[in-house]
């Protein structure tokens, strides 16, 4: 994906806290996000981990799916607000 990587935009801090709470409580979540092609995708499952790598924050689902946090559109029907 040379040249196609977009600059990471940190998500809202309160929303990140909400993601951590869902992960800690092992809540089954419905996530809507944009994939690497810009297509809207929906997935259901538990959030296994939240972590940063090279200044980009990621979410790992229990099925192994990795999602950049700035690609999220909504979780459990709650849309992402502006950046932190």
Automatic annotation (TrEMBL):
<protein>
    <submittedName>
        <fullName>Transcriptional antiterminator, Rof</fullName>
    </submittedName>
</protein>
<dbReference type="InterPro" id="IPR023534">
    <property type="entry name" value="Rof/RNase_P-like"/>
</dbReference>
<dbReference type="InterPro" id="IPR038626">
    <property type="entry name" value="Rof-like_sf"/>
</dbReference>
